[in-house]
Protein backbone atom coordinates (compact mmCIF):
# COMPACT_ATOMS: atom_id res chain seq x y z
CA UNK A 1 0.00 0.00 0.00
CA UNK A 2 1.37 3.37 -1.05
CA UNK A 3 1.97 5.89 1.69
CA UNK A 4 3.95 8.96 0.78
CA UNK A 5 5.02 11.92 2.86
CA UNK A 6 6.37 15.40 2.32
CA UNK A 7 7.24 18.07 4.85
CA UNK A 8 3.62 18.97 5.57
CA UNK A 9 1.59 16.25 3.89
CA UNK A 10 0.70 12.60 4.08
CA UNK A 11 -0.54 10.94 0.90
CA UNK A 12 -2.35 7.60 0.80
CA UNK A 13 -4.77 5.65 -1.42
CA UNK A 14 -8.40 6.76 -1.37
CA UNK A 15 -10.79 4.24 0.18
CA UNK A 16 -14.50 3.93 0.80
CA UNK A 17 -14.05 5.59 4.21
CA UNK A 18 -13.22 8.81 2.33
CA UNK A 19 -16.67 9.09 0.72
CA UNK A 20 -17.80 12.09 2.79
CA UNK A 21 -14.63 13.99 1.94
CA UNK A 22 -14.89 13.13 -1.77
CA UNK A 23 -18.53 14.28 -1.76
CA UNK A 24 -17.42 17.63 -0.33
CA UNK A 25 -14.46 18.03 -2.71
CA UNK A 26 -16.36 17.02 -5.85
CA UNK A 27 -19.02 19.63 -5.20
CA UNK A 28 -16.74 22.62 -4.71
CA UNK A 29 -17.02 25.44 -7.23
CA UNK A 30 -13.50 24.78 -8.54
CA UNK A 31 -14.12 21.07 -9.13
CA UNK A 32 -17.42 21.71 -10.88
CA UNK A 33 -15.96 24.47 -13.06
CA UNK A 34 -12.62 22.94 -14.02
CA UNK A 35 -13.04 19.17 -13.65
CA UNK A 36 -16.76 18.83 -14.23
CA UNK A 37 -19.91 17.63 -12.54
CA UNK A 38 -19.60 13.88 -11.95
CA UNK A 39 -23.16 13.72 -10.56
CA UNK A 40 -21.91 12.84 -7.08
CA UNK A 41 -24.62 14.36 -4.89
CA UNK A 42 -24.67 12.08 -1.83
CA UNK A 43 -22.40 9.71 0.11
CA UNK A 44 -23.67 6.67 -1.75
CA UNK A 45 -22.74 8.22 -5.09
CA UNK A 46 -19.34 9.23 -3.66
CA UNK A 47 -18.78 5.65 -2.45
CA UNK A 48 -19.72 4.30 -5.87
CA UNK A 49 -17.37 6.77 -7.57
CA UNK A 50 -14.51 5.61 -5.35
CA UNK A 51 -15.34 1.92 -5.97
CA UNK A 52 -15.82 2.21 -9.73
CA UNK A 53 -13.50 5.05 -10.83
CA UNK A 54 -10.66 5.40 -8.31
CA UNK A 55 -9.86 2.01 -6.77
CA UNK A 56 -9.80 0.08 -10.10
CA UNK A 57 -6.91 2.29 -11.27
CA UNK A 58 -4.72 1.03 -8.41
CA UNK A 59 -5.28 -2.55 -9.58
CA UNK A 60 -5.11 -1.92 -13.34
CA UNK A 61 -2.17 0.49 -13.48
CA UNK A 62 -0.47 0.36 -10.08
CA UNK A 63 -1.27 4.03 -9.47
CA UNK A 64 -4.20 6.41 -9.22
CA UNK A 65 -5.49 9.40 -7.31
CA UNK A 66 -4.49 9.62 -3.66
CA UNK A 67 -5.87 11.41 -0.63
CA UNK A 68 -3.77 14.34 0.55
CA UNK A 69 -3.82 15.02 4.29
CA UNK A 70 -2.17 17.58 6.55
CA UNK A 71 0.44 15.48 8.32
CA UNK A 72 0.21 17.21 11.68
CA UNK A 73 -3.61 16.98 11.95
CA UNK A 74 -4.44 14.03 9.67
CA UNK A 75 -6.99 16.34 8.00
CA UNK A 76 -7.90 15.58 4.37
CA UNK A 77 -7.43 18.64 2.17
CA UNK A 78 -7.47 17.31 -1.39
CA UNK A 79 -6.40 14.66 -3.85
CA UNK A 80 -3.36 14.27 -6.07
CA UNK A 81 -2.11 11.46 -8.23
CA UNK A 82 -1.79 9.89 -11.62
CA UNK A 83 -4.65 9.20 -14.02
CA UNK A 84 -4.46 6.99 -17.11
CA UNK A 85 -6.94 8.50 -19.55
CA UNK A 86 -8.24 7.12 -22.80
CA UNK A 87 -6.70 9.12 -25.61
CA UNK A 88 -3.41 9.87 -23.83
CA UNK A 89 -0.26 7.77 -24.22
CA UNK A 90 1.04 8.53 -20.73
CA UNK A 91 -0.53 9.08 -17.30
CA UNK A 92 -1.39 12.61 -16.31
CA UNK A 93 -0.93 14.41 -13.03
CA UNK A 94 -4.28 15.22 -11.47
CA UNK A 95 -5.02 17.27 -8.38
CA UNK A 96 -7.75 19.15 -6.54
CA UNK A 97 -7.84 20.84 -3.16
CA UNK A 98 -10.56 22.28 -0.96
CA UNK A 99 -10.84 26.06 -1.45
CA UNK A 100 -9.73 26.88 2.09
CA UNK A 101 -6.38 25.18 1.41
CA UNK A 102 -5.75 26.72 -2.01
CA UNK A 103 -2.87 29.14 -2.51
CA UNK A 104 -0.77 27.72 0.34
CA UNK A 105 1.57 25.54 -1.72
CA UNK A 106 -0.08 22.25 -0.76
CA UNK A 107 -0.95 21.29 -4.34
CA UNK A 108 2.59 21.94 -5.53
CA UNK A 109 4.03 20.00 -2.57
CA UNK A 110 1.73 17.03 -3.21
CA UNK A 111 2.45 17.17 -6.97
CA UNK A 112 6.20 17.15 -6.39
CA UNK A 113 5.83 14.12 -4.10
CA UNK A 114 3.70 12.27 -6.67
CA UNK A 115 6.12 13.06 -9.51
CA UNK A 116 9.03 11.79 -7.43
CA UNK A 117 7.08 8.59 -6.75
CA UNK A 118 6.23 8.25 -10.47
CA UNK A 119 9.90 8.62 -11.35
CA UNK A 120 11.68 6.64 -8.64
CA UNK A 121 9.21 3.86 -7.74
CA UNK A 122 6.98 3.50 -10.79
CA UNK A 123 9.68 4.42 -13.34
CA UNK A 124 7.17 6.21 -15.55
CA UNK A 125 9.14 7.93 -18.32
CA UNK A 126 6.77 10.77 -19.23
CA UNK A 127 4.02 12.53 -17.30
CA UNK A 128 1.26 14.61 -18.82
CA UNK A 129 -0.90 17.27 -17.28
CA UNK A 130 -4.16 18.45 -18.80
CA UNK A 131 -6.24 21.44 -17.89
CA UNK A 132 -8.52 24.04 -19.36
CA UNK A 133 -7.22 27.36 -20.55
CA UNK A 134 -9.14 29.14 -17.79
CA UNK A 135 -7.64 27.12 -14.93
CA UNK A 136 -4.71 29.45 -14.24
CA UNK A 137 -3.95 27.89 -10.83
CA UNK A 138 -3.56 24.41 -12.38
CA UNK A 139 -1.36 25.79 -15.16
CA UNK A 140 0.89 27.38 -12.54
CA UNK A 141 1.20 24.11 -10.60
CA UNK A 142 2.03 22.15 -13.77
CA UNK A 143 4.64 24.68 -14.86
CA UNK A 144 6.15 24.84 -11.37
CA UNK A 145 6.64 21.06 -11.57
CA UNK A 146 8.47 21.43 -14.88
CA UNK A 147 5.69 20.38 -17.23
CA UNK A 148 5.65 22.39 -20.44
CA UNK A 149 2.80 23.15 -22.82
CA UNK A 150 2.75 20.85 -25.86
CA UNK A 151 -0.56 21.32 -27.68
CA UNK A 152 -4.31 21.44 -27.31
CA UNK A 153 -6.08 18.07 -27.26
CA UNK A 154 -9.58 16.67 -27.18
CA UNK A 155 -10.18 13.46 -25.27
CA UNK A 156 -12.61 10.73 -26.38
CA UNK A 157 -16.17 11.29 -25.13
CA UNK A 158 -15.35 14.87 -24.09
CA UNK A 159 -16.41 17.93 -26.04
CA UNK A 160 -13.93 20.19 -24.24
CA UNK A 161 -10.52 21.16 -25.52
CA UNK A 162 -7.65 20.82 -23.05
CA UNK A 163 -4.13 22.18 -22.82
CA UNK A 164 -1.66 19.28 -22.75
CA UNK A 165 1.53 19.72 -20.71
CA UNK A 166 4.35 17.13 -20.54
CA UNK A 167 7.55 16.34 -18.69
CA UNK A 168 10.12 13.61 -19.24
CA UNK A 169 10.98 12.18 -15.80
CA UNK A 170 14.09 10.30 -16.93
CA UNK A 171 17.03 12.13 -18.41
CA UNK A 172 17.13 9.92 -21.53
CA UNK A 173 13.45 10.31 -22.35
CA UNK A 174 12.05 13.22 -24.29
CA UNK A 175 8.56 14.62 -23.81
CA UNK A 176 6.63 14.69 -27.07
Folded structure, characterized:
With 176 residues, the chain is α+β, with helices and mostly antiparallel strands. It has helices at residues 19-26, 29-35, 43-61, 106-120, 136-144, and strands spanning 4-5, 9-13, 65-70, 75-83, 92-97, 126-131, 148-154, 161-168. It is 33% helix and 28% strand. The strands form two sheets. Strands 1-2-3-4-5 form a five-stranded antiparallel beta sheet. The chain has a three-stranded antiparallel beta sheet with strand order 6-8-7, with helices on one face. Helix 1 packs across helix 3 (43-61). 32% of the residues are buried. The model has no long low-confidence stretch (mean pLDDT 95).
Q: State the separation between the terminal residues, measured CA to CA.
A: 32 Å
**Biggest β-sheet: count, sense, barrel?**
5 strands, antiparallel
The radius of gyration computed from the alpha-carbon positions, rounded to a whole number of angstroms, is 15 Å
Helix-strand category: alpha+beta
Give the SSE map.
Layout (H helix, E strand, L loop, with lengths): L3 E2 L3 E5 L5 H8 L2 H7 L7 H19 L3 E6 L4 E9 L8 E6 L8 H15 L5 E6 L4 H9 L3 E7 L6 E8 L8
Antiparallel strand pairs: 1-2, 2-3, 3-4, 4-5, 6-8, 7-8
Helix pairs in contact: 1-3
